[in-house]
Design goal:
Order of helices and strands: EHEHEHEHEEHEHHEEH
Strand content: 15-25%
Bound molecules: guanosine-5'-triphosphate, magnesium ion
Structural class: alpha/beta
Number of helices: 8
Largest sheet: 7 strands, mixed
Number of strands: 9
Distance between the termini: 30 Å
Shape: globular
Strand order of the largest sheet: 3-2-1-4-7-5-8
Protein backbone atom coordinates (compact mmCIF):
# COMPACT_ATOMS: atom_id res chain seq x y z
CA UNK A 1 0.00 0.00 0.00
CA UNK A 2 1.14 3.54 -0.80
CA UNK A 3 0.18 6.29 1.61
CA UNK A 4 0.21 9.86 0.28
CA UNK A 5 0.66 12.61 2.88
CA UNK A 6 -0.95 15.89 1.82
CA UNK A 7 -0.34 18.89 4.11
CA UNK A 8 -3.05 21.53 3.81
CA UNK A 9 -3.50 25.12 4.80
CA UNK A 10 -6.48 26.82 3.16
CA UNK A 11 -6.93 24.35 0.31
CA UNK A 12 -10.68 23.74 0.61
CA UNK A 13 -11.40 24.40 -3.05
CA UNK A 14 -8.65 22.08 -4.27
CA UNK A 15 -9.25 19.19 -1.92
CA UNK A 16 -12.30 17.32 -3.29
CA UNK A 17 -10.89 16.95 -6.81
CA UNK A 18 -7.45 16.04 -5.46
CA UNK A 19 -8.75 13.31 -3.17
CA UNK A 20 -10.92 11.91 -5.93
CA UNK A 21 -7.98 11.80 -8.32
CA UNK A 22 -5.72 10.13 -5.75
CA UNK A 23 -8.20 7.51 -4.65
CA UNK A 24 -8.78 6.54 -8.26
CA UNK A 25 -5.49 4.64 -8.00
CA UNK A 26 -5.68 1.14 -6.64
CA UNK A 27 -3.58 0.59 -3.51
CA UNK A 28 -3.34 4.28 -2.68
CA UNK A 29 -4.46 5.77 0.63
CA UNK A 30 -4.25 9.39 1.73
CA UNK A 31 -3.42 11.22 4.94
CA UNK A 32 -4.42 14.89 4.96
CA UNK A 33 -2.58 16.90 7.61
CA UNK A 34 -4.53 20.09 8.14
CA UNK A 35 -3.23 22.94 10.27
CA UNK A 36 -6.55 24.33 11.46
CA UNK A 37 -7.16 26.08 8.12
CA UNK A 38 -9.46 29.07 8.68
CA UNK A 39 -11.23 28.32 5.37
CA UNK A 40 -12.64 25.01 6.65
CA UNK A 41 -10.32 22.63 4.76
CA UNK A 42 -10.30 20.36 7.82
CA UNK A 43 -14.08 19.99 7.82
CA UNK A 44 -14.13 19.33 4.11
CA UNK A 45 -11.43 16.68 4.60
CA UNK A 46 -13.55 14.99 7.30
CA UNK A 47 -16.52 14.95 4.95
CA UNK A 48 -14.46 13.38 2.17
CA UNK A 49 -13.00 10.92 4.66
CA UNK A 50 -16.44 9.70 5.68
CA UNK A 51 -17.12 8.81 2.04
CA UNK A 52 -13.76 7.20 1.36
CA UNK A 53 -14.32 3.71 2.72
CA UNK A 54 -11.46 4.22 5.16
CA UNK A 55 -8.93 5.23 2.51
CA UNK A 56 -8.65 8.87 3.59
CA UNK A 57 -7.43 9.71 7.07
CA UNK A 58 -7.37 13.27 8.41
CA UNK A 59 -5.03 14.68 11.03
CA UNK A 60 -6.07 17.98 12.61
CA UNK A 61 -3.08 19.78 14.03
CA UNK A 62 -3.28 22.41 16.75
CA UNK A 63 -0.71 24.87 18.02
CA UNK A 64 1.81 26.59 15.79
CA UNK A 65 1.33 25.76 12.13
CA UNK A 66 4.13 24.72 9.83
CA UNK A 67 4.76 22.62 6.76
CA UNK A 68 7.74 20.78 8.23
CA UNK A 69 6.01 20.01 11.52
CA UNK A 70 2.97 18.81 9.60
CA UNK A 71 5.09 16.47 7.52
CA UNK A 72 6.87 15.12 10.59
CA UNK A 73 3.59 14.37 12.36
CA UNK A 74 2.20 12.88 9.16
CA UNK A 75 5.29 10.72 8.61
CA UNK A 76 5.07 9.28 12.11
CA UNK A 77 1.43 8.33 11.54
CA UNK A 78 2.26 6.99 8.08
CA UNK A 79 5.02 4.76 9.48
CA UNK A 80 2.60 3.41 12.07
CA UNK A 81 0.10 2.60 9.30
CA UNK A 82 2.36 -0.02 7.77
CA UNK A 83 2.49 1.53 4.27
CA UNK A 84 5.29 0.10 2.09
CA UNK A 85 5.90 3.45 0.44
CA UNK A 86 5.05 6.90 1.74
CA UNK A 87 4.66 9.80 -0.65
CA UNK A 88 4.31 13.52 -0.05
CA UNK A 89 2.64 16.05 -2.31
CA UNK A 90 1.07 19.51 -2.32
CA UNK A 91 -2.70 19.95 -2.29
CA UNK A 92 -2.83 22.68 -4.92
CA UNK A 93 -2.46 20.59 -8.13
CA UNK A 94 1.08 21.80 -8.68
CA UNK A 95 1.83 18.09 -8.38
CA UNK A 96 -0.20 15.86 -10.67
CA UNK A 97 -2.03 13.15 -8.71
CA UNK A 98 -1.75 11.04 -11.86
CA UNK A 99 2.01 10.86 -11.31
CA UNK A 100 1.75 9.08 -7.95
CA UNK A 101 1.84 5.50 -9.32
CA UNK A 102 4.92 6.35 -11.42
CA UNK A 103 6.78 7.76 -8.41
CA UNK A 104 5.68 4.92 -6.14
CA UNK A 105 6.78 2.35 -8.74
CA UNK A 106 10.21 3.97 -8.98
CA UNK A 107 10.58 3.36 -5.24
CA UNK A 108 10.95 -0.32 -6.08
CA UNK A 109 14.55 0.43 -7.11
CA UNK A 110 15.27 3.50 -5.00
CA UNK A 111 14.92 4.47 -1.37
CA UNK A 112 13.83 8.02 -2.14
CA UNK A 113 12.19 9.10 -5.39
CA UNK A 114 12.02 12.83 -6.06
CA UNK A 115 9.59 14.27 -8.62
CA UNK A 116 12.00 16.66 -10.28
CA UNK A 117 11.49 19.81 -12.33
CA UNK A 118 15.19 20.04 -13.17
CA UNK A 119 16.09 16.76 -14.85
CA UNK A 120 15.57 15.95 -18.54
CA UNK A 121 11.85 15.88 -19.22
CA UNK A 122 10.98 17.96 -16.15
CA UNK A 123 8.91 21.08 -16.76
CA UNK A 124 7.42 24.18 -15.19
CA UNK A 125 4.05 25.35 -16.46
CA UNK A 126 2.42 28.75 -15.87
CA UNK A 127 4.88 29.80 -13.22
CA UNK A 128 5.64 33.52 -13.24
CA UNK A 129 9.21 34.41 -14.11
CA UNK A 130 10.16 35.54 -10.58
CA UNK A 131 9.14 32.14 -9.14
CA UNK A 132 11.12 30.35 -11.86
CA UNK A 133 14.21 32.40 -11.13
CA UNK A 134 13.91 31.93 -7.37
CA UNK A 135 13.39 28.17 -7.62
CA UNK A 136 16.18 27.59 -10.16
CA UNK A 137 18.56 29.74 -8.15
CA UNK A 138 17.60 28.03 -4.88
CA UNK A 139 18.35 24.61 -6.29
CA UNK A 140 21.72 25.60 -7.72
CA UNK A 141 22.58 27.29 -4.46
CA UNK A 142 21.65 24.21 -2.44
CA UNK A 143 23.62 21.90 -4.71
CA UNK A 144 26.71 24.11 -4.71
CA UNK A 145 26.87 24.39 -0.94
CA UNK A 146 25.70 20.97 0.20
CA UNK A 147 27.03 18.94 -2.77
CA UNK A 148 23.82 16.94 -2.69
CA UNK A 149 23.67 14.96 -5.95
CA UNK A 150 20.13 16.15 -6.62
CA UNK A 151 18.81 18.74 -9.08
CA UNK A 152 15.50 19.45 -7.35
CA UNK A 153 16.20 19.18 -3.65
CA UNK A 154 13.36 21.58 -2.80
CA UNK A 155 10.68 19.49 -4.53
CA UNK A 156 7.81 18.51 -2.28
CA UNK A 157 6.66 15.66 -4.53
CA UNK A 158 8.39 12.50 -3.33
CA UNK A 159 8.04 8.88 -2.41
CA UNK A 160 9.98 7.27 0.40
CA UNK A 161 10.55 3.62 0.81
CA UNK A 162 9.33 2.84 4.28
CA UNK A 163 12.64 1.50 5.69
CA UNK A 164 14.48 4.69 4.80
CA UNK A 165 11.80 6.95 6.24
CA UNK A 166 11.84 4.93 9.46
CA UNK A 167 15.56 5.68 9.80
CA UNK A 168 15.27 9.47 9.39
CA UNK A 169 15.93 11.36 12.64
CA UNK A 170 12.52 13.06 12.53
CA UNK A 171 12.85 14.54 16.00
CA UNK A 172 16.00 16.40 14.96
CA UNK A 173 14.56 18.06 11.86
CA UNK A 174 13.67 21.64 12.58
CA UNK A 175 13.23 23.37 9.24
CA UNK A 176 9.91 24.21 7.79
CA UNK A 177 9.31 25.44 4.24
CA UNK A 178 11.42 24.32 1.27
CA UNK A 179 14.28 23.82 3.70
CA UNK A 180 12.43 20.84 5.12
CA UNK A 181 12.73 19.05 1.78
CA UNK A 182 16.44 19.87 1.58
CA UNK A 183 17.09 18.73 5.14
CA UNK A 184 15.34 15.39 4.70
CA UNK A 185 17.23 14.82 1.42
CA UNK A 186 20.44 15.54 3.27
CA UNK A 187 19.66 12.92 5.93
CA UNK A 188 18.70 10.43 3.23
CA UNK A 189 22.10 10.80 1.61
CA UNK A 190 23.87 10.63 4.98
CA UNK A 191 22.11 7.30 5.52
CA UNK A 192 23.46 6.02 2.21
CA UNK A 193 20.09 6.04 0.47
CA UNK A 194 19.66 5.44 -3.25
CA UNK A 195 18.05 8.67 -4.43
CA UNK A 196 16.41 8.82 -7.85
CA UNK A 197 14.90 11.83 -9.60
CA UNK A 198 12.05 11.29 -12.04
CA UNK A 199 10.83 14.12 -14.25
CA UNK A 200 7.55 15.87 -13.43
CA UNK A 201 5.64 18.78 -14.86
CA UNK A 202 5.03 21.29 -12.09
CA UNK A 203 2.01 23.53 -12.68
CA UNK A 204 1.08 26.81 -10.96
CA UNK A 205 -1.45 26.23 -8.16
CA UNK A 206 -5.03 25.80 -9.38
CA UNK A 207 -6.86 27.79 -6.69
CA UNK A 208 -6.11 29.60 -3.45
CA UNK A 209 -3.15 31.69 -2.36
CA UNK A 210 0.56 30.95 -2.09
CA UNK A 211 2.08 30.67 1.39
CA UNK A 212 5.61 31.44 0.32
CA UNK A 213 6.99 33.98 2.80
CA UNK A 214 10.17 35.91 3.44
CA UNK A 215 10.77 33.74 6.49
CA UNK A 216 10.63 30.57 4.37
CA UNK A 217 13.12 32.04 1.89
CA UNK A 218 15.48 33.18 4.66
CA UNK A 219 15.39 29.75 6.26
CA UNK A 220 16.17 28.11 2.92
CA UNK A 221 19.10 30.45 2.39
CA UNK A 222 20.66 29.51 5.75
CA UNK A 223 20.05 25.79 5.88
CA UNK A 224 22.61 24.67 3.24
CA UNK A 225 25.36 26.42 5.21
CA UNK A 226 24.23 24.79 8.45
CA UNK A 227 24.21 21.39 6.78
CA UNK A 228 27.63 21.78 5.26
CA UNK A 229 29.08 22.99 8.59
CA UNK A 230 27.57 20.00 10.35
CA UNK A 231 29.14 17.80 7.72
CA UNK A 232 32.56 19.30 8.35
CA UNK A 233 32.15 18.42 12.00
CA UNK A 234 31.21 14.95 10.89
CA UNK A 235 27.70 14.94 12.22
CA UNK A 236 24.60 14.15 10.27
N1 LIG B 1 -0.36 21.61 7.24
C1 LIG B 1 0.19 22.67 6.63
N2 LIG B 1 0.23 22.75 5.29
C2 LIG B 1 0.81 23.82 4.72
C3 LIG B 1 1.35 24.89 5.46
N3 LIG B 1 1.84 25.82 4.60
C4 LIG B 1 1.62 25.34 3.35
N4 LIG B 1 0.98 24.13 3.43
C5 LIG B 1 0.59 23.24 2.34
O1 LIG B 1 1.76 22.74 1.76
C6 LIG B 1 1.64 22.59 0.37
C7 LIG B 1 2.75 23.36 -0.31
O2 LIG B 1 2.77 24.66 0.10
P1 LIG B 1 3.94 25.61 -0.42
O3 LIG B 1 4.52 25.07 -1.67
O4 LIG B 1 4.81 25.97 0.72
O5 LIG B 1 3.25 26.90 -0.75
P2 LIG B 1 2.04 27.12 -1.67
O6 LIG B 1 1.06 27.79 -0.83
O7 LIG B 1 1.67 25.88 -2.37
O8 LIG B 1 2.69 28.17 -2.62
P3 LIG B 1 2.71 28.17 -4.18
O9 LIG B 1 2.82 26.77 -4.66
O10 LIG B 1 3.92 28.94 -4.46
O11 LIG B 1 1.49 28.86 -4.62
C8 LIG B 1 0.22 23.03 0.06
O12 LIG B 1 -0.60 21.89 0.03
C9 LIG B 1 -0.14 23.94 1.22
O13 LIG B 1 -1.52 23.96 1.51
C10 LIG B 1 1.28 24.81 6.90
O14 LIG B 1 1.72 25.67 7.63
N5 LIG B 1 0.71 23.68 7.41
MG1 LIG C 1 2.19 25.05 -4.06
Amino acid sequence: MTLVIVPTYNERDNLPALIEALLRHHGVQVLVVDDGSPDGTGKEADRLSSQSGGRLQVMHRRGPRGLGRSYIDGMRTALASGAASICQMDADFSHDPGDVPRLAAAAADADLVIGSRYVAGGQLRNWPWHRRVLSAFANRYVRAITRLPVYDATSGFRCWRRDLLARLPLDRIASDGYAFQVETTWHARALGARIQEVPITFVERRQGASKLSGRVIAESALLPWQLSLRHRHNRT
